[in-house]
Amino acid sequence: MQEADRSHRPFVYVLVLSYNGRKWLAECVDTLLAMDYPDFRVLVIDNGSTDGTRDYLAERYGDRIDVLWLHENYGYSGGFNHGLVYAFAAKRADYVMVINNDTAIDKKALSALVEVAVTDPMIGFVSGKVYYYDDPKRLQTCGKSEDPIRWNGEHIGWKEIDTGAYDEVAERVFLDDIYCLVSRRVYETVGGYSTTFFLQSEEYDWQARAKAKGFRLVYTPHARLWHKESMTIGKDSPLKAFYDARNPMIVLMLHRSPDYFRRYFRQHARMVVRRSLVYAKRLRLYSALRVLHGLCSGLYWGFAHRKLTARHFIGPAA
């Protein structure tokens, strides 16, 4: 990083959340520190790790980064919220970039994200291309488009080789928060992540609340990142299975019409039961129970918070 005149250039805090992720942090943080944007600071939020992360970061980076030590695991949403308070309230950042720790970012990515964000104060979220780390020319996502079946849209470019088909700056229905630039204005208007979502689906709720206030979600092809995918919690962990079953229902209860939710629930419940049977056939009985528990937990949440549901709608409400 170079010194910069903040009267002309937004100051960005890059927030890296980590829970027992010491073995992935070096590549993530090293590539962040190599970015060419001249006015940013990296903050690693340690979510109560027990793998020696604290000593490792102090030895490897010293005062080149900030580290926020949390005494327990607050989850994805809660952990990042501590970082948002630090960046926006304590350090007066203009933007934050949230980023997963199992990633490697291109040196020009932050510059590309900021370049788009500053064109309109109502651009609340900006993200770019995400590639699979082990298949570096294959796309994981270029944002999401509206989809009549998938409640949270369809990943644009998913598993395609990047041939330049998605090389235009464009608005998106949703953006994955594997990495995402977020404006101070969004935070001051709608707050941060909801801790209802310990992990999984949290970005859709946040972005839905922002969209309801008129904020835009924009994709730029000029930002690139490579993702190792679900390394911290595991691609198929019982914890992930629980929240994958639970949280989509809560997002829909909050942000879609009751009719839409009822139609979606029938599809979702069938999927959850099928997934539970697959786990059972593999003798993964705990995962089989957890995914069913997630379905029941989501329904219970909706009943307990029924006065909050369907407060506003996004996308097709019918």
Write the layout of secondary structure elements.
Blueprint: E1 12-18, H1 22-33, E2 40-47, H2 53-61, E3 66-70, H3 75-90, E4 95-100, E5 103-105, H4 109-117, E6 123-132, E7 135-141, E8 144-145, E9 154-155, E10 170-171, E11 179-183, H5 184-190, H6 202-212, E12 216-227, H7 238-255, H8 258-281, H9 285-304
Parallel strand pairs: 1-2, 1-4, 2-3, 6-12
Antiparallel strand pairs: 4-11, 5-12, 6-7, 6-11, 8-9, 10-12
Helix pairs in contact: 6-7, 7-8, 7-9, 8-9
* Assembly category: single chain
Number of domains: 2
Compute the number of strand runs.
12
Please summarize the sheet with the most strands. 10 strands, mixed
Please identify the top-level CATH class of the largest domain: Alpha Beta
The CATH topology name of the largest domain reads Spore Coat Polysaccharide Biosynthesis Protein SpsA, Chain A
The proportion of residues forming helix, as a percent range, comes to 25-40%
- The CATH homology group name of the largest domain: Spore Coat Polysaccharide Biosynthesis Protein SpsA, Chain A
Instruction: Estimate what percentage of residues fall within beta strands.
Output: 15-25%
Structural classification? alpha/beta
Order of helices and strands: EHEHEHEEHEEEEEEHHEHHH
Model description:
- By secondary structure, the chain is α/β, with parallel strands linked by helices.
- The protein is 40% helix and 22% strand.
- It contains 9 helices and 12 strands.
- Strands 1, 2, 3, 4, 5, 6, 7, 10, 11 and 12 form a 10-stranded mixed sheet that branches. Strands 8-9 form a two-stranded antiparallel sheet.
- α7 (238-255) runs parallel beside α9 and α8 packs antiparallel against α9.
- Mean pLDDT is 88; it is low at 1-5 and 310-318.
